[in-house]
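Q: How would the structure tokens look for this protein?
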Amino acid sequence: MLKREKYRKILDNIIEANVLLVIFCLPFSKSIVEICVSISIVAFIVKTICWRDSFRLDRKVLIALSLFVLFNIISLVNSQFLSLSIRALVSKVAEWVLFFVVVSSVAKDRARLKRIFFTMLASCALILFDAIYQTYMTGKDFLHYPGGYPIFKFSAWKTGGMGFPTASFPFPNDFASWINVYLFTFLGLAIFDLKGVANRVFRPAVLILCALLAYFLFLTTASGALLGTFGSLCLLILVSVRKFLMPIVALLLVVILVISFVPYLREYAKTGIMDETSSINDRVNMWETGWRIYKEHPVMGNGVNTFFEHYRSFRTDSDKGKGSYAHNCLLQMAADIGILGLLSFLAFFAIVVFKNMKRALVKISGFEHSFVFGASLGVIAFLVHSIFDTNLYSLNLAALFWTFLGVVEGAGSSLEKNQ
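A: Here is the predicted structure in token form.
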């Protein structure tokens, strides 16, 4: 019996170690993420076979998640690129769904949730240093040495202008997506966790990281991400209007004044707005094409992972024959797996996030409650941003999304037991 429990502990340690590696490495190493996700899933499956009580998931979440997988499978009926669809069903849909379950099992334990927090701190410090190194020292990030990602410049820019920070991500929009998840998770801990992990030692560090994250979020000028930030800030204010409304309004006024009167920042914001306007025009064209693809099979979809290929024949501009993403993850998902598939995904997301936010708000203090609430705001900002970008179709950002959804579900379910 003792030997059996020893094996279970070994599997638990393997699963946790790989989840922590995913969190730490996802901003800069897709290969490590893929390897660690696979190892953690295999270890979890072995553990579940040997110990049936290892798999526990809220009934509503399980139903919504099962429907999402089912509609992905049904979409194969219409797929004109069946091999692409089958590969995606295994390597994307099934993989991320299983990893969500794996992470939720890890996050149920308070000690492991603290280790997730410390891993986030370490990863965040590394990526922010990389962003500083790239933006103010060399123009390239050091985490992809020797060919690091350069500071990003939109095609509309004239030669010689300053670019937008990406850190270890290929594009500033990707960097902004990652920032939102970390920014709100840390804000939740810094504001509400009065006696837990983010105490006298960690709160100053967390607040400094929050300030740097907010600063680099501004420098990315990613309008979709900023819209997500605004939405989550509104939810944060609603939790305690008296406590947050005036400070946040005052802070926004200070930021606006600083941007208005500092020439460098004023010019930076102006240029960013001009480039975003150009980018929005491109997105409108993509959305129109995506809508026509969706209308081909609106209920069952055109087949999971086929949007890029369909775009080649549906686009009408000078680049006809070239594939592209919709730059609207919800539209692309609807085109791939139909409106029923999209609704099942949104139902799954809403159940996980709002159910656990409600649990956290019962007693919004202490480590677990603050973590769940902050991470929930982060994934909400992420999903809002995904309406204007390709977040769910980028490996490292998909890993970010499903990982923190798993954290919210796992840590949130442990709150219910303690209430």
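Residues 2-418 form one domain.

The CA atoms of residues 21 and 61 lie 26 Å apart.

Upvote if useful.
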